Structure formats: structure tokens, C-alpha cells
Amino acid sequence: MFNTVCVMCHGPEGTGNGPAAATLNPKPRNYTDAAWQASVTDEQLKETILKGGAGVGKSPVMPGQPQLADHPEVLDELVQIIRRFGKQP
Ligand code: HEC
To answer: What is the pLDDT along the chain (89 residues), one digit of tens a residue?
Structure first.
């Protein structure tokens, strides 16, 4: 799912440089930013993914995935993917 939906904006390396990101303002979050990784909890990440940017006071360009409320395992895996980007050197 990350590779089909999220990569468009967040990019294959999680740096926020996906093909659809060029025209976005603000830019998608750079997941490799250690300071940002430390500033958000897993719960906050899940809430943003579920509700989208508009639901949590961020950019409305970030689309919500409310259907994942019924698929917590997918939500957990997306959070793990985001956390892995933060651990890359
Ligand atoms: C249409 C482009 C787009 C798509 C598709 C998209 N995002 Fe985003 N995303 C954004 C933008 C833009 C932001 C920055 C919002 C802000 O900082 O105001 C963002 C922010 C986020 C954040 C919040 C970072 C923070 O500041 O707390 C998370 C988590 C996230 N995206 C995860 C995902 C996941 C997981 C997917 C796939 C299911 C996804 N996004 C798909 C554009 C997108």
C-alpha cells in the first residue's frame, strides 16, 4: 500500500519527493528527519494516516485513509515503514 498510495507524494525514500510532491505546498513530511521522528508518537502517525491532514490541523493535501480503521494491522505496518525511514543513515 505504501508503494502504491503514499509514494506518490512521500517518495520511495520517504524524503517527501514523490512525483506528485513537486507541486505541493507545504511539502510532504521528510520521514528521514530525525528531529521530526522524535517529535511524533505512533498514535499521532496513525491518527494522521486515518484522518488525513485536514483532520489533524495539517495540510489538507494529505489524504486520509479512514477505511484503515477496520484494518489496524495495515495501519501498524505503515507506521513501521515510516519509522524505518527514520533509522536509515
Ligand atoms: C497527495 C499527496 C499525499 C499522499 C498520497 C500521502 N500523503 Fe502523507 N502527507 C502529505 C503532505 C503534503 C503532508 C504534510 C502535511 C503537513 O505537514 O501539513 C503529509 C503528511 C503525512 C504525515 C504526517 C507527518 C507529521 O507531520 O506528523 C504522515 C504520517 C503521512 N503523511 C503518512 C502518509 C501515508 C502512510 C500515506 C499513504 C497511505 C500518505 N501519507 C499519502 C501528502 C500526501
So the answer is: 999 999 999 999 999 999 989 888 889 999 999 999 999 999 999 999 999 999 999 999 999 999 999 999 999 999 999 999 998 66
DSSP string for residues in 76-87 = HHHHHHHHHHHH
From the CA of 28, how far away is ligand 1's center (Å)? 5
All three cell numbers of 35:
528531529
Which three three-digit cell numbers place residue 67?
A: 477505511
Pocket of ligand 1 (CB under 6 A): 5-6, 8-10, 20, 24, 26, 28-29, 40, 45, 48-49, 53, 58-59, 61-63, 65, 78, 82
Ligand 1 mean position to 62 CA, how many Å? Answer: 5
